[in-house]
Every structure is written in structure tokens, then in C-alpha cells.
Amino acid sequence: MVLRRSVLWAAGVFAGLGGSSFVVQAGVSESDAASGIRAALERGANAAIAGLGKPDGFMNNPAVRIELPGYLKDGAKLLQMTGQGKKVDELLLAMNRAAEAAVPTAKPLLVAAIKGMSVEDGLQILKGGDDAVTQFFAGKTRQPLNQQLLPLVTQATQKVALADKYNAVAGKAAGLGLVKSQDANIQQYVTAKTLDGLYLMIAEEERKIRKDPLGSGSAILKKVFGGGA
Prior knowledge:
By secondary structure, the protein is mainly alpha-helical. The protein has ten helices and no strands.
């Protein structure tokens, strides 16, 4: 019964789910499948942190680069067009540098979430689409990581005199509906964008593993997703 359940779980439940999902090899046990998912998530998290937690990890990556929100971005473009963009550039650089400095501290919580992953979590990821990994990490770690990263981002942005001016202007803009209320504080805004970028890049790394498990170099990933032993 147990063997039949494992075979059906591996070969039947996930068959035909399409390119956006993991495809588990037939005959793989639930235990090995869970180990494979954990290995994929940990590899993805490590790669994302390594890529983002360095100078220009955010700044030079269009997918995660932190820009000014709402109408402030349009106002910044106007300042740059009139030759007054230096301070805007300083603020943008400070925002992205704050994110780059904060990201590495997220690793322990991400690893803890991976190690504590349940079979149900694994099922959701296996059956889910391209945002399944993002949903898993966000659900498990977003709130504690927000609390952990916020002081680091605050410390980094305090070095820029424009941070207080941003909060003053964005606060007024939020009152007029021109900026989302959650974006009216630069420290909270940058922290949220840091986590958005981190989860996005973890999902990107996970997609690479899903696409080419044999190229991952991991024995468990090859066994579970790539047909290797």
C-alpha cells in the first residue's frame, strides 16, 4: 500500500501539469521528493542571495532595481531633464545599496523555512505555477524578514539627507492618493522592495533548476527531477 501510494504520488499526481511545474520521476518516494524540493529551494535561495547581496546586485539588475514609487518617479524624471537629477541619483543609489546590504542577513530565516517545509508545502510547490516558490517563502518568511531587515535599511538610508525629505513629500502625496500609503515611508518601501526582489530571484533560480535538473550537479535533484540515480 505504501509502495503503491509512493508510485501514484510520484507518477500520477504530477503527470501532465505542464512546463511550469516540477515533474517527479516515477517510483520516487515522498521522502526523496521532499528532499529534492528542499535541495532546489536551498540552492535557489543561496544563488539569489549571492547575486543580490553584493554591490550593484540590485542597482544593475533591471528586474529588481528599486525605483521611486508612483508620481515621485515621474517627478524625478522631470528633475533629471532639467539638470537637477544628481540628488535623485544619490537617493536611488542609497536605496539600492541598502537593499544589497540587507539581503545576506535573510539567509538563516530562509534556510529555516526550507528545513521546516512540510509534505503539504512540497505538494503546493510541486503543483503550483511559476509563483509557487515566491508564495511559499513569502508566506513563511515575509513578516519576520520585514522586521529583521527594516532596521538595516533604516540605518543605511539615514546616511542620505534626502531620506527625510522623501518621507515628507511622499507623506503628502499619499494623502492626495498619488502614492500608496505603504510606499510613503522610504525605509518601509525599500524593505518591501528588497523582499520582492529576493523572492523574485529565488523563483528565477528555481525555474533554472526545474528546467535543467541534470545540470544542477545535485544527486538528489537528478534522482527526483532528472531521472538520475
